[in-house]
Write a structure and sequence with these properties.
Elements (H helix, E strand, L loop, with lengths): L9 E6 L5 E7 L2 E8 L12 H23 L8 E7 L3 H18 L3 E5 H7 L12 E6 L4 E8 L2 E7 L5 H11 L6 H9 L24 H12 L8 H30 L3 E5 L6 H14 L2 E4 L2 H4 L4 H12 L18
Parallel strand pairs: 1-4, 4-5, 6-9, 9-10
Antiparallel strand pairs: 1-2, 2-3, 6-7, 7-8
Helix pairs in contact: 1-2, 3-10, 4-5, 4-6, 4-7, 5-7, 6-7, 7-8
The structure holds 5'-O-[(R)-(carboxyoxy)(hydroxy)phosphoryl]adenosine and zinc ion.
């Protein structure tokens, strides 16, 4: 994979903000390796259990480090910069990746860079293309966040709007749980929606016409729960589940697309970008592409393997920040509530 960033610095990045342990190595504009270890253990609980996640990071990280260095064909002493996600996320998870990266930086005498997970997502659409970071309106949709951001360059961000309650991915996960589907719910809801009728249930489009750029998804999830109660006899039947998934997904996609386009129009943006786990969703990608096309806007979506949590996006953000002269102190603490700006 070639990147616009053209400097031969080799960066090793670690991401452990939630339940994915990830390590990536980027040399100049070439991604040498990017490994992710997911934790299936959380499925039994229908959500991430912080203590389990943290223990698993500790178990997986040393092996993953070795594997990533092996795949990249590079020795630890050849790494120029160590980076890690320092927030936002689960404190006990963030601590593992950040401590390892700091330890490696101290042990090798190399610089350390603390990276904001949201910035990793935000910049990820530019990772595979031959682009500079162009001004854009960015939709970040993940399990923990739903944000609309005006981007003018690296570290030049203005928050336009955010969810006032559940994140879009959280709504996918909660609806999946209500419908008896697995965790994480997004991919499973999307799969079931493909065989369902999106017009069968008229679920609410909360805050669609609000004057701000905020979102709300908790009412939508509650509407699914109440509607489901009307179909007690059909509970679990494929047709009902598929129709619920398709109707729910249609409601989420409509709100995300309409509000993103409205924000882009208000900012006078020529480019829209999307990132985060929910931006893997094909229905969202297709609708966003169509509506951007109709509005004469360019659309740049993060490639699917960079949408869900990974360390390549952290390495990329670190590369851009390093190039801009940023360095972090190893004493810098992780921050579970770290804001983008
Ligand atoms: O970005 P991510 O891996 O982690 C966070 O930073 O939160 O996003 C995970 C979220 C989960 O809520 C998951 O259900 C959702 O992204 N997701 C999807 C899809 N794939 C993952 N949601 C809808 N459709 C998908 N295909
Ligand atoms: Zn994420």
């Amino acid at each position: 994979m070639r990147l616009p960033y053209n400097c031969a610095v080799t960066i090793l990045a670690i991401e452990t903000s939630c339940d994915e342990t990830a390590v990536a190595i980027l040399r100049g504009n070439e991604l040498l390796a990017s490994e992710v270890a997911s934790q299936a253990e959380h499925e039994a609980y229908g959500g991430v259990v912080p203590e389990v996640a943290s223990r698993n990071h500790l178990l997986h990280a040393p092996r993953l480090l070795e594997e990533t260095l092996g795949k990249a064909g590079i020795a630890l002493k050849k790494i120029d910069v160590f980076a890690a996600t320092s927030g936002p996320g689960l404190a006990s998870s963030l601590m593992i990746g950040a401590s390892i990266a700091k330890g490696l930086a101290l042990g090798t005498g190399r610089p350390y860079l603390a990276i904001n997970h949201l910035e990793g997502h935000l910049l990820s659409p530019f990772f595979s293309g031959n682009f500079q970071i162009e001004p854009n309106v960015s939709l970040i949709v993940s399990g923990g966040h739903t944000l609309l951001v005006e981007v003018r360059g690296v570290n030049k961000y203005r928050i336009l709007g955010r969810t006032v309650d559940d994140a879009a991915g959280e709504a996918f996960d909660k609806v999946a749980k209500l419908l008896g589907l697995g965790y994480p719910g997004g991919p499973e809801v999307e799969r079931r929606a493909a065989s369902g009728r999106p017009t069968r249930f008229d679920f609410p489009r909360s805050m669609l016409d609000s004057r701000d750029h905020n979102f709300s998804f908790s009412g939508l999830k509650t509407a699914v729960r109440y509607r489901l109660a009307d179909f007690e006899k059909e509970r679990g039947m494929p047709e009902l589940v598929n129709d619920m998934c398709a109707s729910f997904q249609r409601a989420v996609v409509e709100v995300l697309v309409k509000k993103t386009l409205r924000a882009a129009r208000e900012c006078g943006a020529a480019l829209v970008t999307t990132s985060g786990g929910v931006s893997c969703n094909q229905a969202l990608r297709a609708e966003m592409a169509e509506q951007c096309g109709n509005a004469g806007l360019r659309l740049l979506t993060a490639p699917p393997r960079l949408c869900t949590d990974n360390a390549a996006m952290i390495a990329f953000a670190a590369a851009l920040r390093f190039k801009a002269g940023h360095r972090s102190a190893v004493a810098e603490e992780i921050d579970p509530n770290l804001a983008l700006v």
